[in-house]
TrEMBL record, chain A:
Native source organism of the sequence: Hymenobacter nivis
Pfam families named in the record: PmbA_TldD_1st, PmbA_TldD_2nd, PmbA_TldD_3rd
Name recorded for this polypeptide: TldD/PmbA family protein
InterPro entries with a match to the protein in the record: Metalloprtase-TldD/E_C (IPR045569), Metalloprtase-TldD/E_cen_dom (IPR045570), Metalloprtase-TldD/E_N (IPR002510), TldD/PmbA_N (IPR035068), TldD/PmbA_sf (IPR036059)
Coiled-coil residue spans: none
Limits of the Metalloprotease TldD/E N-terminal domain: 25-89
Entry's Gene Ontology BP terms: proteolysis
Residue ranges of every copy of the Metalloprotease TldD/E central domain listed in the record: 139-213
Annotated Metalloprotease TldD/E C-terminal domain residues: 220-435
Family: Belongs to the peptidase U62 family.
TrEMBL record, chain B:
Domain Metalloprotease TldD/E central: 162-248
Matching PANTHER family: CONSERVED PROTEIN (PTHR30624:SF10), UNCHARACTERIZED PROTEIN TLDD AND PMBA (PTHR30624)
Organism annotation: Hymenobacter nivis
UniProt-recorded name of the protein: TldD/PmbA family protein
Family: Belongs to the peptidase U62 family.
Annotated ranges, domain Metalloprotease TldD/E N-terminal: 64-128
KW Hydrolase (keyword) present: yes
Cellular component per GO, a single term: cytosol
SUPFAM superfamilies the UniProt entry points to: Putative modulator of DNA gyrase, PmbA/TldD (SSF111283)
Keyword terms, alphabetized: Hydrolase, Metalloprotease, Protease
GO molecular function: metallopeptidase activity
GO BP annotation list: proteolysis
Length: 441, 550
C-alpha cells in the first residue's frame, strides 16, 4: 500500500478534491517503503523496516490557508481531512505571502530503469559480506545500509497533476583496526541497488584503515589539499559544498543577511565570486543522478545553471519572493552537478609536489554566515603527499575555511562522482586553513 | 539533503507548515483541540501490550517489551509582523522489541489493536531470528525486577496545550514588535511544545504509564548595516525545559545577573522573553561595531547557557557507553574515554570538576520516572574531583563494564523507532564555597566572558573542539571592559577541563537545554538538560573568525 501507481494516486486525489468547497484546494500523497540494517563490532545491532503513506490537503479561501493530513483513506476519513483543512483555513489570518496555486504544468521524465530495491535477506547478506571481510583481517566494521522506494503525487483544482516515483539506497561503512589506531570510511548512494557493492566499499574502507596506522602529527597552517568527494558533500550532515549549494537563496541575500548580499542592498547575482573553473548546475535528466521532475510546490524542474565559469548565474527564488521581485521562480533542485575534469584522485595526487589528501570531513558547522566560514575536522584517513605520492598518514586536524575562499583557491578539478544525490569532483585547493591538531582516530 | 528526504517533504503541501526544526516524527496534523483529548486508558493499554508480549513469547522471544506511545507536538512560528505557521500534530502507535536467539528484533505499527500489536511482535521475532545468523555477541540484559502497574507524571503547573493559540501568537508577535521597535532589521520567534504519553510493558512484569512535557520558546534577531554590508544575529538565551506553560511567566527570583558591565541576564525556572529580546536588540546592534578579538590565550569565564553545550559535547557524549564500545563508530563516532583510558586513572579535569548524571531533576528535559526499557531513573557520579568514575549505560551494556544494573538512560524518539542508549542530564556541580560571578571575574587579569551558545564542532572521539557564543565581553584587570566579536575558542577536552579554575556557587546554578540532540542511524533526536554555574577556565586558545570574501 505505501507505493501507489500513478492511476491509483490520481483516482484518490480526484476523489479528495471532489469533497472540497474551497476557492483553491491541493491534495498531495506521499508514500515510502524503506528498510535498513545496522551493524557494529562486527555484529548486527539493529534492523528496521518502515512503510508510510500520508495525504495532505491544503484548502484556501482567498489568502487564508489551512492544511490537514491523514494516513487512512476510507471515505469518511478523507472527507474529514478536507473539512478540517477548510475549517483551519477559515480561521487562519490572511497570508501576506500568498501566491496562487499552480495550474497545469509540463514535466520532464527523468530516467528511471525499474531499479532494484534490496530485500531484508539481501540487506543482511550485504552486512554479512562486510563483516566477514573485516573479521577475517582482524579489523572491526560498523556500517549502515538503508534503502527503498518512495512516491509523491499532487493534484489541485487549478489543473496541476504531478506524479513521480524514486528509489534510493545508501550504504556507509567505517572500518577500524583492532588497536583503534587506524580508521577508514567508504560511502555510496545509488538509484539502483543492484549497483551497490558493499564488499568492494568495505575493502576500500579497510585499505584506508590499514593505511592510516601510525599517523604523524604535522603543524597546522595553510596547506595545498586534495579533497575527495566524500569530504565535500554529505547526505546526513552539513558539508562544504552542500552549504554553498543550498545557500544560494535570493531572499536572505536581498534581505542583507547572506554571503550573497551586496553592499548597499540587493544580491550578487551576475558577479564573479569563484575561480573560473567553477561551474555548478542542476539537471533532472542526468543519467547518473536522475532528479525529481517537480519540486515541493509542483514547479517543473529543468536544467538550471547556478554558477558558470565562476559567475553566479541564478539564485533560488521561492514563488513568493519571485512574485515580489517580478522574476521567474526557481524550482528547488533535488541535486547538483559540479563540472569537473577527467583526472582521478590518484592523478591529482601525482601532480602534487606537497599537500594533504583529505578523504572525509566531520562535524562541519557554520562559524560566520557573513563569509560562509565553516569549521570541522578531517576523519578516517588523512595523508601527506610529497612528490606526487602519498608518503605517510597524518593525524587529524581542525579547519576553519569558507567554500567561497576555497573555490577561489582552486588549483585543479578531478572527475565527478555521485555522492548524496549530487555529482561532485575531487578538488585540489591551495592555502586551505587548518587551525589545530586532533588526537582522534 | 538526500533526494528521498526532499521527496518526503513535498507531502506537506503548505510550505509555510514545513519549517526547520519541527519534529513531526511521523505525526499527522490535527486540530489543536485534539491535543487535549485523553488517549487510551491504562486498562486498554495493558490489554494491548499484553497481546504483544504474549505473541512475542509464543513466537519464541526470551524477552519482549511493548511501548505504546502518543506523541503530541505543537509549534508556532512567526517572523516580524506575521505568523508563518502553526502546526499541531499527533503520532500514535506501538513499537515491539524482542530478544530471540540472543538477538534484538524490532517492529512497529500504527494499527493499535491487539491483532496489530501481536503482528508487529511476530515480525520483530522473525527479524531477530533472521539477524541472529549475522550475530556474534549474544545480548545479555542486566536483571530488572518488574514494577507492576505504576505511573509517573512530569510535575507541570499548566499544560501548554490548554493555552489558546491566540495567546501564543500574541506573545510571539509582541516579542517581534519589541525587537522591531528597538531597531532590529529582522526577527523571528518560535514556540515548540511537546507531550509524550508513553506506556511501557515488558515480560519482566512492568506496566508503566508516563506523561512528559517539554516547552521551548526562542527567537533570533538580526541587525544589518546596509552601507558596510555587515550583519550580526543574536539568539535567545532561553532554554528548552521539561515544564509546562508556567515557564513563560517570568519570576524575579529566577533571574540571575551576569557580571557587572555585561548586560546579560540568565534565567532559571522561568523565562522573560520580552526582557531578553529587548537585551538582544540592544546587543545585536553593539555587535555590528564591537572590537574584533586579538587571537591568543585568554582566561574564559563561561556562563551556564554557554557552558551547558560544552558539557554536552565534551563530557555527555564521550561518556555514552555505546560510543565507548564502538556501536556508533560509523556515524557519531567513538570516544577517547575508553575502558583502557579510564583504567589509567588520568585526570579528566581539575579537582573542582564534579560532574553528575541525573534523570530525576524536576523541570529538566531528561527527567522521567522510568526509561524506555522500564528502569527506574536515578542520579550517579560521572566525574568526581576530576577523575572519571562511571559511564552512561543501559541494560544490554552493564555487563560489558562488569556492572549489574542499568543507569536508566534508554530512550526512543517515538513509538516507531527502537530505543537505545541516550545521554541523561549531565551537570557540573556548583562550587561549595560562596562565589559570585563578580568575584569570579574580579580575579581575571586578561579574559573573555562568553554568554549563550553559538557555533560548535568536536571530533569523533571528543578530543578537539571549537565553540563560539552569542555575546562576548573582554575582561581586563578584573573588570568587564567592552564587547568583542569574531571569538571562538579551540581546546582539547582533557586540557580544557584540567584548566577549570573555579566555579560559582549554587545561587548561580541553572540549566541549559539541548532540544534536538541527534544520534544513531537512522538518526533519532532526544532532549537533555545540562546545569552549571558560571565557571572559569585558564589559558584557553582563542581564534579570530573574521574573514574577507571578494
Amino acid at each position: 500500500m505505501p507505493i501507489l501507481s500513478q492511476t491509483d494516486a490520481q483516482a484518490l486525489l480526484k476523489q479528495v478534491l471532489g469533497y472540497s468547497t474551497a476557492d483553491e484546494c491541493e491534495a498531495s500523497l506521499n508514500g515510502r517503503t524503506t528498510g535498513n540494517i545496522r551493524y557494529a563490532r562486527n555484529s548486527v545491532s539493529t534492523a528496521g523496516a518502515q512503510d508510510t503513506i500520508s495525504l495532505a490537503v491544503e484548502a484556501r479561501f482567498g489568502k487564508r490557508s489551512g492544511t490537514a493530513t491523514c494516513n487512512e483513506f476510507d471515505e469518511a476519513t478523507l472527507k474529514r481531512c478536507v473539512q478540517r483543512a477548510e475549517e483551519i483555513a477559515r480561521l487562519a489570518p490572511e497570508s501576506p505571502e500568498y501566491v496562487p496555486l499552480l495550474g497545469p504544468q509540463t514535466y520532464l521524465k527523468p530516467p528511471s530503469a525499474a531499479p532494484t530495491v534490496l530485500s531484508p535477506t539481501a540487506r543482511a547478506q550485504a552486512a554479512a559480506d562486510s563483516i566477514n571481510l573485516c573479521a577475517a583481517k582482524s579489523l572491526t566494521a560498523a556500517g549502515f545500509l538503508d534503502g527503498g522506494t518512495s512516491f509523491v503525487a499532487k493534484r489541485n483544482n487549478k489543473g496541476l497533476d504531478a506524479y513521480q516515483q524514486s528509489t534510493n539506497t545508501d550504504f556507509s561503512v567505517t572500518v577500524r583496526t583492532a588497536d583503534g589506531r587506524g580508521s577508514g570510511y567508504a560511502i555510496a548512494d545509488v538509484t539502483d541497488a543492484a549497483k551497490l557493492n558493499a564488499k568492494a566499499l568495505t575493502q576500500r574502507a579497510a585499505d584506508k584503515a590499514a593505511g592510516s596506522l601510525n599517523a604523524k602529527a604535522i603543524e597546522p597552517g595553510k596547506y595545498t589539499v586534495i579533497l575527495e568527494p566524500a569530504a565535500l558533500m554529505a547526505g546526513d550532515d552539513l558539508s562544504l559544498l552542500g552549504g554553498l549549494f543550498y545557500g544560494l537563496d535570493a531572499r536572505s541575500a536581498d534581505e542583507g543577511r547572506s554571503f550573497l548580499a551586496k553592499k548597499g542592498g540587493g544580491n550578487r547575482k551576475g558577479e564573479k565570486l569563484f575561480d573560473e573553473k567553477v561551474t555548478i548546475y542542476s539537471d533532472p535528466m542526468n543519467a547518473e543522478v536522475p532528479g525529481n521532475a517537480f519540486d515541493g510546490d509542483g514547479l517543473p524542474t529543468q536544467r538550471m545553471s547556478w554558477v558558470e565559469k565562476g559567475v553566479v548565474k541564478n539564485m533560488l527564488y521561492s514563488r513568493y519572493w519571485a512574485q515580489k521581485n517580478n522574476v521567474p521562480a526557481t524550482p528547488f533542485p533535488s541535486g547538483f552537478v559540479m563540472s569537473g575534469g577527467t583526472q582521478s584522485t590518484a592523478e591529482l595526487i601525482k601532480g602534487t609536489a606537497k599537500g594533504i589528501l583529505i578523504t572525509r570531513l566531520w562535524y562541519i558547522r557554520e562559524v560566520d554566515p557573513q563569509t560562509l566560514l565553516y569549521t570541522g575536522l578531517t576523519r578516517d584517513g588523512t595523508f601527506y603527499i610529497e612528490n606526487g605520492a602519498i608518503k605517510f598518514p597524518i593525524k587529524n586536524m581542525r579547519f576553519n575555511e569558507s567554500p567561497i575562499i576555497m573555490l577561489n583557491n582552486l588549483e585543479a578539478i578531478g572527475r565527478p562522482q555521485r555522492l548524496a544525490g549530487c555529482l561532485v569532483p575531487p578538488l585540489k585547493i591551495r592555502d586551505f586553513t587548518f587551525t589545530s591538531l586532533s588526537d582522534a582516530v | 539533503m538526500k533526494r528521498r528526504d526532499f521527496v518526503g517533504l513535498t507531502g506537506l503541501a503548505a510550505g509555510a507548515l514545513f519549517l526547520p526544526s519541527f519534529p513531526s516524527l511521523g505525526g499527522v496534523l490535527v486540530d489543536p483541540a485534539r491535543l487535549l483529548e485523553p488517549g487510551a486508558d491504562t486498562a486498554q493499554k495493558k490489554r494491548l501490550a499484553d497481546a504483544g508480549l504474549n505473541a512475542a513469547k509464543a513466537a519464541g522471544a526470551s524477552y519482549a517489551d511493548v511501548r505504546i506511545g502518543r506523541y503530541l507536538n505543537q509549534s508556532v512560528f512567526t517572523r516580524e509582523k506575521q505568523v508563518q505557521g502553526i502546526a499541531s500534530t499527533e503520532s500514535y502507535g506501538a513499537g515491539v522489541r524482542v530478544i530471540a536467539n540472543g538477538t534484538w528484533g524490532f517492529a512497529s505499527t500504527n494499527t493499535v489493536t491487539e491483532a496489530g500489536i501481536a503482528k508487529a511482535a511476530q515480525l520483530a521475532v522473525q527479524i531477530a531470528k533472521a539477524n541472529s545468523k549475522v550475530q556474534k555477541e549474544k545480548v545479555q540484559l542486566a536483571p530488572q525486577a518488574g514494577f507492576g502497574e505504576v505511573s509517573w507524571k512530569a510535575p507541570i503547573q499548566q499544560n501548554a496545550f490548554e493555552v489558546p493559540i491566540k495567546d501564543k501568537v500574541d506573545l510571539l508577535l509582541g516579542v517581534n514588535a519589541k525587537a522591531l521597535d528597538l531597531g532590529v532589521s529582522f526577527v523571528n520567534s518560535i514556540l515548540s511544545q511537546v507531550n509524550e504519553q508513553k506506556y511501557f510493558a515488558s515480560t519482566d512484569g512492568s506496566y508503566i504509564d508516563q506523561d512528559i512535557h517539554r516547552i521551548y520558546p526562542s527567537f533570533g534577531v538580526t541587525a544589518i548595516d546596509r552601507a558596510s554590508g555587515k550583519f550580526r544575529s543574536r539568539q535567545a538565551l532561553s532554554s528548552p525545559v521539561g515544564m509546562g506553560y508556567e515557564y513563560l511567566t517570568p519570576k524575579a527570583a529566577d533571574k540571575v545577573a551576569g557580571p557587572t558591565g555585561s548586560d546579560i541576564v540568565g534565567y532559571k525556572y522561568s523565562y522573560d522573553m520580552l526582557e531578553d529580546v529587548a537585551a538582544a536588540a540592544k546587543q545585536v546592534k553593539q555587535k555590528l561595531t564591537a572590537k574584533s578579538v586579538v587571537p591568543g590565550k585568554y582566561d574564559l569565564v563561561l556562563d551556564p547557557h554557554h557552558l551547558g553545550l560544552t558539557i554536552h559535547e565534551s563530557v555527555g557524549h564521550p561518556l555514552e557507553l555505546d560510543r565507548v564500545l564502538g556501536y556508533e563508530a560509523n556515524f557519531a563516532g567513538t570516544s577517547f574515554a575508553t575502558l583502557e583510558w579510564k583504567a589509567k586513572g588520568l585526570p579528566y579535569g581539575s579537582k573542582v570538576v564534579n560532574i553528575v548524571a541525573d534523570k530525576t531533576q524536576p523541570g529538566t528535559l531528561g527527567a522521567v520516572g522510568y526509561d524506555d526499557e522500564g528502569v527506574k531513573t536515578k542520579r550517579w557520579d560521572l566525574i568526581k574531583e576530576g577523575r572519571l568514575v562511571d559511564y552512561e549505560k543501559i541494560r544490554d551494556q552493564a555487563h560489558m563494564v562488569g556492572q549489574k544494573e542499568s543507569d536508566g538512560c534508554c530512550y526512543a524518539q517515538s513509538w516507531q523507532d527502537v530505543q537505545f542508549q541516550r545521554m541523561p542530564n549531565v551537570s557540573l556541580q556548583p562550587g561549595k564555597a560562596k562565589l559570585s560571578v563578580d568575584e569570579l571575574v574580579s580575579k581575571v587579569d586578561k579574559g573573555i566572558y562568553i554568554a549563550g551558545n553559538g557555533s560548535f564542532s568536536i571530533d569523533q572521539q571528543r578530543f578537539n573542539f571549537q565553540f563560539g557564543g552569542q555575546v562576548f565581553y573582554a575582561i581586563e584587570k578584573g573588570k568587564i571592559t567592552e564587547m568583542l566579536e569574531d571569538v571562538a575558542y579551540q581546546a582539547n577536552t582533557q586540557e580544557f577541563w584540567n584548566s577549570c579554575a573555579a566555579t560559582c556557587d549554587e545561587s548561580d546554578f541553572r540549566f541549559f537545554g539541548a532540544f534536538n540532540d541527534g544520534k544513531g542511524q537512522p538518526s533519532q533526536s532526544s532532549a537533555v538538560s545540562h546545569g552549571s554555574a558560571t565557571t572559569r577556565f585558564n589559558g584557553v586558545n582563542v581564534i579570530n573568525t573574521a574573514r574577507k570574501i571578494g
